[in-house]
Amino acid sequence: MSLAHDRTGSGEPLILIHGFGTHRGIWDLVTPLLAREREVIAIDLPGFGDSPATVEHPTPPRLAAAVAAFLDELDIGRAHVAGYSMGGWMTLELNKMGRTLSACALCPAGFWNGWERAYLKRSLRNIRATLRLLSPRLEAVARSARLRRELNRQAFEHADRIPPDSMLSLMRGFRDAPGFDATLEALHEGHFTGGSTVSAAATVAWGEKDKLLLPRQADRARAALPQARHLRLPGCGHHPMVDDPDATARAILTSA
Q1: Has this prediction a pTM greater than 0.90?
Q2: Which whole-number Å values give the CA distances from 14 to 157, 185, 233, in the listed order?
Q3: Which of 18, 47, 62, 179 is least crowded, fewest Cβ atoms below 10 Å from its Cβ?
Q4: How many CA atoms lie within 13 A of 228 on its CB side?
Q5: Please, what is the Cα angle at 156 between 229 and 87, to 5 degrees?
Q6: CA–CA distance, 95 with 149 (Å, rounded to integer)
Q7: How many Å apart are CA 171 and CA 185, to the nearest integer?
């Protein structure tokens, strides 16, 4: 299962898994911090970024299996793994499969109740609809720090910290992702299960200002994964790698 990816740094391998709708560029602010201690491999999931939509019925467990196949291609048996949102759920699935040296799930999906799941699904569709409506003006939005922040307030606390070219790429990627619809439906079919089989070398870290996967879901994650380390990330929204790269790097690097 070949996946588009970037590699940098040296040391034990660290796989970075993005969330729904984004791509590997979402990690750019934190990658230099991680690469001081790890060989960082940031991937594009099937149907997002530069990876084609090759997984049928792309639930988080099926996407995790695709990442495991990618690790096999690289001859990596086990790696440090970090992911956020849908990628956080996948990180826990890879841990259950015995493929992680450590696992850091940032604001992971799958710990919702019924209305929270519906709220997230509706929010993601609304974001895409807004980006399509603003298509002729996306470059202007990306050039303005104020507009980057205001347009993306539900997802980021500090979207103004993303460079204009990177923000334009992320917005276009969310708008145009070929895997958007199929993955959105598959993501929201159920919830995370099997927490008792997650190893203790795992961290769940939640942005205290997350407006997509609400912070109270961290309490359900704590109940499902009592053996894991649980952190709150002050001042962070749904994308802590943007809102606080230093705190995110510490959470990832200390997960082992």
Answers
A1: yes
A2: 26, 29, 21
A3: 62
A4: 30
A5: 50
A6: 34
A7: 20
**Burial category of 35 from C-beta neighbours within 10 Å (exposed 0-12, middle 13-18, buried 19 and up):** middle
DSSP-based three-state secondary structure for 232: strand
- Answer for the pair 197, 96: CB distance below 8 angstroms, yes or no: yes
Q: Is 98 exposed, middle or buried, given 0-12, 13-18 or 19+ CB atoms closer than 10 A? A: exposed
For residue 91, what are its two tokens? 């990180």
Pairwise CA distance, residues 92 & 98, whole Å: 10
Tallying the residues shown for the chain, one arrives at 256
The pair of three-digit structure tokens given for residue 122, joined into one six-digit string:
């509706």
- pLDDT of the chain, 256 residues: tens digit per residue: 689 999 999 999 999 999 999 999 999 999 999 999 999 999 999 999 999 999 999 999 999 999 999 999 999 999 999 999 999 999 999 999 999 999 999 999 999 999 999 999 999 999 999 999 999 999 999 999 999 999 999 999 999 999 999 999 999 999 999 999 999 999 999 999 999 999 999 999 999 999 999 999 999 999 999 999 999 999 999 999 999 999 999 999 999 7
Burial of 77 (0-12, 13-18, 19+ CB in 10 A): exposed
Domain range list for the chain: 5-253
Tokens in use for 40? Answer: 């960082």
- Tell me whether residue 60 is exposed, middle or buried, using C-beta atoms within 10 angstroms of its C-beta: 0 to 12, 13 to 18, 19 or more: buried
Question: How many whole angstroms from its chain centre is CA 117?
Answer: 17
Contact call for residues 183 and 55 (beta carbons, < 8 A): no
User: Amino acid letter at 12?
Assistant: E
- The rounded distance, in Å, linking the Cα atoms of 213 and 88 is 12
